[in-house]
């Protein structure tokens, strides 16, 4: 079993965050743009590539804000994620073209149906993964201190 690195973008403009909108049998769910690091890629190279694929534009990458682990056997999707172990690295990012970008994803994920600016205060009304990320994003948006390492959360 190996550990997969995933690099994620926290694209925050004012009181909103840009998320990918996805759909499965339970309805809509939301994710931060980003994805798996490929062999030979740096975190920044992987994140820039993933943002082009999922949101269709480049980003300016800032500070590392959160590190989250996901060990599948410890969570509700253990039946099909039992062997999964992923480390996610969340970076604060800005869109290179600004908030009014005309998004044209080049290679969206299989469940992705669009993009949506979501008010951070309203995140509790959305099925965002990881679920625990909501409270940390809300603390960050309010200027409160947050831990960098979030642990094995979902």
From TrEMBL:
Domain Nudix hydrolase: 1-141
Domain of life: Bacteria
Record SUPFAM superfamilies: Nudix
Keywords carried by this UniProt record: Hydrolase
Cofactor(s) this protein cannot do without: Mg(2+)
PANTHER family cross-referenced by the UniProt entry: GDP-MANNOSE MANNOSYL HYDROLASE, MUTT_NUDIX FAMILY PROTEIN
Protein name per Swiss-Prot or TrEMBL: NUDIX domain-containing protein
Species classification: Bacteria, Bacillati, Bacillota, Bacilli, Bacillales
